[in-house]
């Protein structure tokens, strides 16, 4: 699993972005990919899955 930080998450719209700790790449995350509720600044671990517009973070859990 990868680790990163939640850059942004809009609860009312159900999506946000995570920045990978190692590569500094930014990944889209949808509420359906969350295991735990997340907030801006949370440290998380996640997996990546190919989505319609690139890689998406899935199985997102707070660390």
Automatic annotation (TrEMBL):
Annotated CSD domain residues: 1-62
The entry's keywords: Cytoplasm
Subcellular location: Cytoplasm
Main localization, broad class: cytoplasm
Keyword Ubl conjugation assigned: no
Cytoplasm in keyword set: yes
PANTHER family given in the database record: COLD SHOCK DOMAIN CONTAINING PROTEINS
Identification of the protein by name: Cold shock domain-containing protein
Organism of origin: Algivirga pacifica
Source species taxonomy: Bacteria, Pseudomonadati, Bacteroidota, Cytophagia, Cytophagales
């Amino acid at each position: 699993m990868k680790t990163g930080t939640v850059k942004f998450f809009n609860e009312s719209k159900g999506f946000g972005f995570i920045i990978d700790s190692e590569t500094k790449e930014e990944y889209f995350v949808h509420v359906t990919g969350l295991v735990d509720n997340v907030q801006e600044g949370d440290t998380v671990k996640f997996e990546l899955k190919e989505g319609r517009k690139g890689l998406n973070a899935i199985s997102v859990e707070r660390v």
